[in-house]
Every structure is written in structure tokens, then in C-alpha cells.
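Data deposition worksheet. Section B asks for the primary sequence of the deposited chain exactly as it was used as input, without tags or linkers unless they were present during the calculation. Section C holds the resulting structure in C-alpha cell form. Section D is free text for depositor observations; keep each observation to a single sentence. Incomplete worksheets are returned to the depositor.
Section A, Depositor: J.P.
Section B:
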Amino acid sequence: MQIQRLVDLEDYEFDTLLVTYNHKNRLSIELGKVSEIFNVLTEDGLVGGSKVYGLRGKDFSYQGQPYYNLIFIGIPENASPRKYQLQFGAAVKEARKLKGRNLLMTAIGDDVSFWLSSAMKGILLGDYTFDKYHFEKEERPEINLGILTGVDQASFKKEVQYSRMLAESVILARDLVNEPANIMTPAALADAARAVCEKNNIKFSVLEKEDCEAMGMNSFLSVAKGSKQPPKFIVMEYNGRATDDEKIALVGKGICFDSGGYNLKPDKAMKGMHGDMGGAAAVIGAIGAIAQAKLGINVTAIVPACENMVSGKAAKPGDIVQSMNGKYIEVVNTDAEGRMALVDAITYAIRQCNATTVIDVATLTGACVVALGDRYTGVFSNSDDLTAKLVQASIIAGENIWRLPLGGDEYAELNKSSVADIANCGTKCGAIAAARFLAEFVERKPWIHMDIAGSSESDADTQIYAEGGTGAAVMTLYELVKIMEKPYKSY
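Section C:
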């Protein structure tokens, strides 16, 4: 998608005009014809509030130029960055329906810097599609976006670069999640991570099965035992400030397919399990953006990648394994495998990479989906200060998060085992039990767990989403790292 700054319409022929309106039905473009159409649509209930509505006409014109499509975009009072993303994402989908190719919008006023990048991200993400495996592809001409604005060229260019960088990082994560499991194997995921590192000057390494065995990663390896696909322990190290002792570890669950193991999933739950590496996709996308922006901070992304399959070698319910941390884990449920992989990755981050802060991202529990649905990411943390930064980052990024409790002493027995130090699965409070299990391995480091089991996937083509992977958490992770950067820089 081409995005260009316009000061007049002399060199830009457009076919689709985007017009926003607020809670008082004030239009961003006050023209007689546009206002008349808007008033008629209001009476019919087609616009108003937060509705996005497009129509095709024959005699539309703006500043002497004819156009064919008119799209009204409702922007509520005090709209958040997320709302701008959602609304403009919906608008670009309307433009596609109307066969629009060259879009025009205005960005004029004192608050342009607040919403412009969110609008551009919304348009870029809303136009995403994954049709790689369609033999007969639907024709999708490139969409161009012209923005009529008083924002100076240098500032505008910066906003476009920032918006495109984050949108492309989210799209990378979506592509990784949307690949089927026969393509996106642990080895293929490692190759994708390597490509990001080579492009952005990030140090890359992979620990093979033998390396993991030598380091005592028995918890991670217990998950991989049942598959013919060899596990890959992926490490991506970005040193934006080599003299700083602080280092953030982004740990992403990389289960490339989750059958549930011997606690086999039912058929309906098996669908979509190629996307159980959404956390891995998120940290790969995020560290690519962090390096591309040259943030002055040290960040390491770690991905324990494997498959959870059934075979004569697979882990069995009741097995006991010793983690890299040293703690013995009773495998109560082989379908609680993500946390088994994550704890060795967390230990590696702390003991081998000297991480001072740990954030893990994982499609971890169905219980979190029950609690929060598919538009919110569940967050658990042992640090109020770090969580406050994450909340700020999520608002800027336009992604919904909701903090859930670890439960303190009242839930201390959730993962109790009579035969080992800890059980990998509790009998209740599924999302909390999983988070508390991870918390046992963070060694008192400031830590956040993001459960993206619901938010990592969309079942509908709507707003900024397409059916499939959403790229959840990529933008929030980027904004969090940017907030934690010292000194704070704009991008």
C-alpha cells in the first residue's frame, strides 16, 4: 500500500473519499453534497454512533474532482488509539467491497498526531489477507492512500514509517501463525526467525536437542518427545545498549502443533492448533520492530519450538521430569504442555542471558478464553510497576489487556503435587493455575505473563482482523520496550 502526503489534489486522482464524523455528527469534510447524504443516511439509521458505512454514487465530486465511493467513519468522543484502528480497518474493508483503489482522507487539526498513526495502522492491518494456498486467487488490486494534511513532510514521513513498521511486524506474526503445521515446523519457525535476525542485525542462535539435553531442559524436551520433528530452541539477541546491564527477555511459546499428547484434544479443539505458536510469532515480530527502530535497550527473544504429539516416545500422564531450574514437575496433563516448554526458556533467559525482566507470551489456556473472550489478553504479573508500563503500552498500541490475579496465599495449593515439587496442571482456576506455575520459575525477577489464547485468533474478517492469526501482543511488546528504553525516544 502506498501512503502519500497531499497538500492539494493536483497530482492525486482518487475514487474513494473517507469522511469521519463525531458524536455530534460533525463531519471532517463539510460539503453540501456530503452533508446532505449524511443527513439522509442518519435518518435511515445507517450512520451514527460508531457505524462505518460506504456507498457508491455517480455524481460525487470534491474540490473539482469526481469520485465514486463515499465512506463515513464514526469516531466516538475521546476515542482511543484502538478505536481509530478498528474504525479505519473497517473503512478499508468497505473500500474493498466498493472496488475502491485510491483512497483520500483528511488529517487536519490540533490533535492529528494523536490519531493519525493509529488510523494508518488500522488501514494497513484491515487490508491484510492470507491467500497463499488459494490456487485461484481473488483479484486484489493494490490500494493507495492519500492524506490531505498540514502536517509537515518530515513529521508525516516519520508517522508513516512508524505505522508501517508496526503493521508489517504484526503481519509477519499473522503469516507465521496462519501457516499450516506441515509447513510451519519448528525448523521452519527457526528459519523465519533467522531471516528476521539477518534483516535487522540481530544475533541469532539455535540450540538443538543435544544442546538442550546438556543444559538440563528436560521439561521442554518432554513436550517434544512424541514428534518426529526435532525441537528447536531459538534465541534472538538484540543489543541496543551493550553497556547497560539491564536486559529484557521476551519468551514466546512455540508449540507448532498441539495434539494434546496422551490427554488428546477432542476433534473441535484440535482445529487451529497449528496456531499454538502465536506467542513465538509475537516475540519474533516484536524484536524485529525493536531492532528496526534501533531502540537503545537490550532485548532477547527466546522461543522453545516443538510439537506436542502422540507416539510410543511421548510423555505420559504421571511422568516426572526435572526442569532446567532443578525443580521436579509432575506431568498431570500432557495438554498443559506450553508451560512445560516456557519454564525452561524462562530459566535460560535468567541464568544464561542474564535477563533482568521477563515477559512471556503464550496461547496458554482455554480458561482465559472463557474469562475474557477473543478481544482481550489476560495478564498476570508479580510487579505492579511493570504492569503499569504494560497498561500504558497497550493503550498506545491499541490492544486490549486485562490483569488477572495470581491469588496470593489463597491459591498457593493450585499446583500442589504429592510426588514432585509441583504439578503442571491444577484442578481449578485454569488460567491462574498456569500463571502460578510459571511464577515458580521466574526467580523473583520482574515478570509478566500474557495469555493470548483468545486474542491470538479471529474467527471473522472484520475491522483490523482477517480470519486466522491476529498478531496479538506484537505492538504492545514494542511499545513496552520503548517505554522502558533509557532515555525515552519517540520511536
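Section D:
The first strand starts at residue 2 and ends at 6.
The two ends are 22 Å apart (CA to CA).
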